[in-house]
């Protein structure tokens, strides 16, 4: 585990739900326990609290970036995020197939902060799924994929509009996930590599 990009999943009365997260850490090795931080506004938060279990899939550098957009920039409250995302069930919880590994936990304690719940989970299942690419780090997500943090993420920072205005060249920003395309012009058939939205969802940054 690293400071990476994960998809945290749970069940909403039997319906798979989930969200992206970057704040997951190992607490102890025996018994194996981990902590995951989930914003109070994330629907997944209340589902974990109600069901008492959660899982997380560890995305790799080769994982489809649209997974991040699907789970990070819409709500499971009114969206079936798993409709077009291949997944399998492990210990009764959904796991993203396009990931390098997963961990399933039962909640053994919680800690509340002003904006997030930290769920402490005892590991009940875990496995490596794919070793063809390293786990995606948070730095890789920002520097290579050029992704942005959702507003509910612990690492979200409001961008400095003045600094953005000083940057030169053609820049178009996805109004769904915040991804920025740089170039002389935005192709009409362009698809956002993070959330999969078309060119009509991009706005030029003046």
**Average pLDDT over all residues:** 85
**Into which percentage range does the β-strand content fall?**
35-45%
Structural domain count: 2
Low-confidence stretches: 159-167
Structural class: mainly beta
Determine the number of helices (DSSP H or I, runs of at least 4 residues): 4
* SSE succession: EEEEHEHEEEEHHEEE
Helix content class: 10-25%
The CATH C-level class name of the largest domain: Mainly Beta
Any guess at the CATH architecture of the largest domain? Roll
Which helices and strands, and how do they pair?
Elements: E1 6-12, E2 15-21, E3 24-29, E4 32-39, H1 43-51, E5 53-58, H2 66-72, E6 87-90, E7 93-96, E8 101-112, E9 116-128, H3 138-143, H4 161-166, E10 171-174, E11 180-182, E12 202-204
Antiparallel strand pairs: 1-2, 1-5, 3-4, 4-9, 5-8, 6-7, 8-9, 10-11, 10-12
Written overview of the protein:
With 206 residues, this protein is mainly beta. The protein folds into 2 domains: 6-143, Roll (Pnp Oxidase, Chain A), CATH 2.30.110.10; 161-204, Rubrerythrin, domain 2 (Single Sheet), CATH 2.20.28.10. It contains 4 helices and 12 strands, in the order ββββαβαββββααβββ. The N and C termini lie far apart (39 Å).
């Amino acid at each position: 585990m690293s400071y990476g990009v994960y998809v945290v999943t749970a069940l909403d009365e039997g319906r798979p739900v989930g969200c992206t997260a970057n704040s997951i850490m190992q607490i102890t090795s025996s018994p194996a326990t981990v902590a995951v931080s989930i914003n109070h506004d994330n629907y997944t938060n209340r589902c974990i609290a109600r069901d008492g279990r959660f899982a997380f899939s560890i995305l790799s550098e080769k994982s489809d970036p649209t997974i991040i957009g699907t789970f990070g920039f819409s709500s499971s409250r009114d969206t079936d995020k798993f409709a077009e995302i291949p997944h399998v069930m492990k210990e009764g919880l959904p796991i993203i197939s396009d990931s390098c590994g997963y961990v399933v936990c039962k909640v053994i304690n919680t800690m509340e902060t002003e904006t997030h719940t930290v769920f402490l989970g005892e590991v009940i299942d875990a496995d490596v799924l794919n070793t063809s690419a390293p786990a995606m780090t948070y730095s890789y997500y920002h520097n290579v994929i050029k992704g942005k943090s959702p507003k509910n993420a612990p690492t979200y920072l409001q961008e400095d509009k003045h600094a953005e205005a000083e940057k030169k060249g053609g820049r178009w920003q996805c109004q769904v996930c915040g991804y920025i395309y740089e170039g002389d012009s935005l192709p009409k058939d362009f698809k956002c590599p993070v959330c999969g939205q078309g060119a009509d969802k991009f706005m030029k940054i003046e």
